[in-house]
Input
Amino acid sequence: MIADALKQVEKILDDWRECSHCGLISTLPAMRPELTADCPRCHHVLWRMRSCNFELPLGCALAGALFFFYAVIAPFIEISSHGQFQMARIVTGPYQLAAQGFDAVGLLVLGVSVILPGAKLLIILVTLTGLETHLLPRGVLKDIFRWYEPIKPWAMVDVYLLGFLVAYTRLAVIATVHLDTALFALVGLMVSTAAANAFLDTEAVWRALDSGEPVRDCAAPSDEHLLIGCPSCSIVNRAMPGDTCRRCDAVLEARKPASFGRSWAFIIAAAILYVPANFYPVMTISNLVQSRDFTIMGGIFELFQRGLWPLGLLVFFASILIPVFKLLTLAIMLIETHLRSEQHLVGRTMSFRFVDFIGRWSMIDVFMISILVALVRFGKFSSVQAQVGAPCFAAVVVLTMFAVNAFDPRLMWDRAAERHAEPGHIHRGAEPA
Ligand SMILES: [Zn+2]
Ligand SMILES: [Zn+2]
Output
């Protein structure tokens, strides 16, 4: 009888979710296609249910994979000037950046424009075909699918295409530009990946990987154990920090480890590098007559001078405002958390979601530079050389993304709650009412 009752309690636990933005544990509603389950406290989406089965996201990912292969092997742009001709594949930019001595920037561009978008598609393809065909053990599929969420923000084909748009306006001044077929494959890749992403119900995938039930039962209720939401598959575990998730074997932590220290370290490093990133030129454009250095701001002024206001404003927002906004918002959030502020907790949590969402768009200028150095190689007639500002700026973008990643917004709610309780007596992961 008691064993049956305990089993029943565990079943209920399978439907609980810890909100990763405010720490509230609530019960998921019953599956209803196209229903979105939000956190009742901070409105973070806990489960966006999809009415389609896995065939639609699988089809989109398959189309994405075909576009991906074509986009990698075929040239996407050609330019001609002074009787000479240059063409670029997506990998030419990273290669040329490395050849000019900027290996780290080249590797970063290669990672976020080729390797990680490919990996993201591969994860969807392997997991969903594995579910259909039973060729791979469920444990292996779970190990693979666990990487889907962490990789998502780093696959930047959409941002790359905006970087291409800015590069195109500069190339049109230097040479005659011909768009090639791989560019359309890149657009196809962006659309099909976004569609696969939109149609994929990750909770439904995890449930299918479980075949109905998590691998392990929960620990029995006790004073030492906390209720911890898994950072990968989001199921709630009754566990100790450092234990592994009963569904996907990810390591469980009640809160992100050393969140304050790591966030501050990344913020300070990014703020320091922001100065050389804007002070030093990011590239030099040379031709027979002159050689001109461009800082980030100089590049934006040039777009304004040529009447390209929308593009100039876009780059100004992405390259200048977003990094400053992110650093200031995060620093204010950290200070308010230290002060155990109870003010605007929902607003602060929503601001966190906003800075998390906008961060990757700052990569536009880095992609623009990689495309220009790939193409403008006409010797003394015209050439583009990356400069020391470029790695500094790329580091600012990456460090601000790391800073957002390291910050645990649940700490804002924990610290605010500590005002009304003895520190150390906050019961993290209270059971839902
Ligand atoms: Zn929440
Ligand atoms: Zn898990």
Summary: Residues 50-212+255-418 form one domain. The longest strand covers residues 77-81. The first helix runs from residue 2 to 14. The chain is about 55% helix and 10% strand.
